[in-house]
Amino acid sequence: MTAMDEHLLEVDDLRVEFGRGRGTASVLNGVSCHVDEGETLAVLGESGSGKSVTAQTIMGILDTPPGRITGGAVRFRGEELLGADEERRRLLRGESMAMIFQDALSALNPVYSVGFQIAEQFRFRRGMSRRDAMVRAAEMLDLVRIPNAKQRVKEYPHQFSGGMRQRAMIAMALALDPELLIADEPATALDVTVQAQIMELLDELRRERGTGLVLITHDLGVVAEVADRIAVMYAGRIVEHADAATLYARPGHPYTRGLMDSVPRVDDAGVGGAGAVLRPIPGLPPSLSAIPHGCPFHPRCAYAQDVCTDEVPPLREVGAPDHRAACHFAEQFVAEGPDRPATQDVVSG
Amino acid sequence: MTDTAPALRARGAEPDEAAAVDESAGRGGLWVDGWAQLRRRPLFWIASTLILVLLVMALWPSLFTSVDPRVADLALSGADPSPDAVLGRDLQGRDIYARAIHGAAPTLTVGLLASLGTVLVGAMAGLVAGYRGSWVDGLVSRVGEVFAGLPFILGGIVILTTFNQPGRIVGEVRIVTQVVLTIVVLSWPLAMRIMRAAALEISQQDYVKAARALGAGPLRIVGRHILPNTLAPVLVFATIQFGVFIGAEAALSFLGIGLRDPVVSWGVMISEAQERVADIPQALFFPAAFLVVAVLAFVMLGDAVRDAFDPRGR
Amino acid sequence: MREPVLSVRDLVKHFPVTRGVLFRRTIGHVRAVDGVSLDLAPGETLGVVGESGCGKSTLAQVLMRLIPPTSGTAQFEGEDLFAKRGAALKAWRRDMQIVLQDPYTSLNPRRTVGDIVGEPFDIHPEVAPKGDRRRRVQELLEVVGLNPEHIRRYPHQFSGGQRQRIGIARALALRPKVIVCDEPVSALDVSIQAQVLNLLSDLQREFGLAYLFIAHDLGVVRHLCDRVAVMYLGSIVETGTAEEIYARASHPYTQALLSSVPVPDPTVRRARIRLEGDVPSPADPPSGCRFRTRCPKAQEVCAEQPPALGLRPGTGHATDHPTACHFAEPPRLVRAE
């Protein structure tokens, strides 16, 4: 067992840039987070927030160039990964950490059967015979609740439906029983009924196997259902971090609050209910090659003051333990709760 | 917190994110903007200058040389470069420089006309096939396959020997026309395929759907939406084919069925020089150099034009 | 209900499945739209929801006269829509426009924003005199919340949300009575999506537009729509006001769909109706009720008789809106804290 303060995965002040010269895009600007065994950390963000780059950097599959890691550390059970050689990282990938992608169709090779692709890992990493590996592959398909796994193991990716392919990819990721699973928008491309099945499956497998799960997503609904802790990203920074209940009950960052006010909901609760006016965040996310001075959110923030344009607010503890927000006025937001409009025009009509 | 700055309404509140973008882009439509871009590219000016020189050479060869390219002096066979003949002499003792200058006209005529013809015929067929689809597409594609299936040399021999008895002396205009037509007939399916694929892809795009929903007619859809978006691959194809066609013309000449004496072309010169490369390297080297420069100039021009007419590249 | 501006009856669109290169033969049909009827009143928003492959986008394209219907009728202001030809068809296009899903492929990359938004006036020159067009285009850009100075820019210089606004401006140019919105916000980020949804609401109020709003996101549909039609494998399985659908859904598919949508609130734990498997292929739909292969309530009768869309007073569980299920009943448990 590791020491108490040693996490399964710890990301510390990670910085990544793309390109060089005047057009340099600062994609990650000091991202810190951690995951423990059996827990789900959701990384929530819109496109361009840096959530996928975070996942790729942790896995060591970031394309460099154009990407460039300019600082920080990624520690897996205390072992620093960014400095490790490729041999060691390759060993860890699959054995200790695995990744699920959004697009299962392009993640599976169309010319090999699904079973063959899962079995490959058993053959090359565990030295199993071809036959034994196929038996294990069928077991894995069964584990991800694919009916008739024994028959379907010989089928090709195009013969699987979208939901099935996603299950097959989960089976492949879990084949070597990794301790950490990173899921990058695992259900975004799927229909809502299938999406619910996949999220349920991931949640169950995590609980059964004690896997640490990093869930990268933009969907506030999915996050609310499965996450233990949530990190909200904006312009390459984590702007808020809290356990799920706290974050939804008392968002401390106006961006988090704006996101929640932007989602039209199916149920009665919340601002997005029938007939209500959505309260969108005005403007657009900043270009990563020209992140605004001070708080990166200030041009879109209804509460921005002079201090916001001058100083970058640090991610600091606000109120509850482990609730951190990067806003100069976070305490006030936390005290007010979420039911106050985030933009003022709604109040004035 | 109620005294904070008033919020912007979402409508009309988008910051000017494109402010950093070059403001000179987008003055007045595709052609004007494209020309404005083109004018700023050094590549375009280099290529244009080279092409201009080549054209002058083709139109008024006497500006560059006063030597008759047909005068042969066997006594001087394979002479090295000298003040008398600056690039040396070929096997039959003819002035290579003079021949290269006089060869520009037929070479460029064949290259340009064949490229133009191939692209016009092929692109038109591809556009119609890709846009109309159904049986028109089937018909054009099958006919194209038949022509593409003919080996070039065999097809060339069949066509050209049908019109001319081997060894017969034919006029310059006639033989050039025949060679150009032969090349077009045998090569148009290539351009057709490229255009068809591009047109198929573009006609599936949502902006074509939107235009149809607005009531746009087929001419407008093809002219405004499909053609400008399919031009790039065809343009690249045309510039590359220019070089290929000059080579093809040389191959036909080598077989004795293409351009031939008294017509001089770079292809004819290269094919004549092949037999004695070791003894008279200059007879191969200089026409080849002219050919390379000409091909490069057209490739550069095509490249510059393609980039200039793509707004995304600015 | 007021006299509908658009009235669709028994609309069917089948795509032939063909084999062979030289001699094509038809080996089957994809039943993309299979008997859809709906009415759209002036100024209202009718939402059409369903999962991928349910035929909702095909429906939009047929109604826009982009592809011909296989059978069925549609009336626009009392006139037969599918009989329109030539000048009448072109004139009708001014009344009905479409906003497409993908903001990246719906704008021609080689034309300026001015060209794109002005194209409707080029095609229908009678709407705006030539000298007036530039001003009209700039007005439109302003209406959709874009800087009218940007008339000379190209689409790639705008973000996804801004491009969608350009697409909306183009659809708005001819002052249509109906706009078909085919997944207009599904490609956008949450915060941008809300901006565009609010824009659509504002425009509806300002111009009295009727929307046929096609989407897969049930939250978005609830937010924007007055009435909702739920589609499954080419047919409407349930239709009613937003209130009727979201609070009192009676078709098991609608109920399952609603319960599958995650709610952004960790304190709400809803009972989920779990559907097994995936949507069957529309080329080979199940007999009887299309939904029976995934339905938790399926009985023998479901395989034999396709249930008609209608009120079901006889079942003992009276429903107040049309539904296509032999065993329709109000939801028992939607929510458990």
Kindly describe this structure.
The complex is a heterotrimer of chains A (349), B (314) and C (337). Chain A has 349 residues and is an alpha/beta fold. Chain A is built from 14 helices and 12 strands. Chain A folds into 2 domains: 9-233, 3-Layer(aba) Sandwich (Rossmann fold); 235-348, P-loop containing nucleotide triphosphate hydrolases (Rossmann fold). Chain A has helices at 51-59, 86-95, 104-107, 114-126, 130-143, 149-152, 162-174, 192-209, 220-226, 244-249, 254-262, 306-310, 330-336, 345-348, and strands at residues 9-18, 25-35, 40-44, 67-76, 79-80, 97-100, 180-184, 212-217, 229-234, 237-243, 316-317, 324-325. In chain A, strand 7 (180-184), helix 8 and strand 8 form a beta-alpha-beta unit. In chain A, helix 5 crosses helix 7 and helix 7 (162-174) packs parallel to helix 8. Residues 270-275 and 340-349 of chain A have low confidence and may be disordered. Helices cover 66% and strands 0% of the residues of chain B. Chain B has helices spanning 29-39, 42-59, 96-132, 134-149, 152-163, 172-203, 206-213, 218-254, 266-273, 281-308. Chain C has 337 residues and is α/β, with parallel strands linked by helices. Chain C has 2 domains: 40-70 and 80-225, Rossmann fold (3-Layer(aba) Sandwich), CATH 3.40.50.300; 251-323, no CATH class. Chain C has helices spanning 56-63, 86-93, 113-123, 133-143, 160-172, 190-207, 218-224, 242-248, 252-260, 300-304, and strands at 6-19, 25-40, 45-49, 71-76, 79-80, 96-99, 178-182, 210-215, 227-232, 235-241. Chain C is globular and about 70 Å long. Chains in contact: A-B, A-C, B-C.
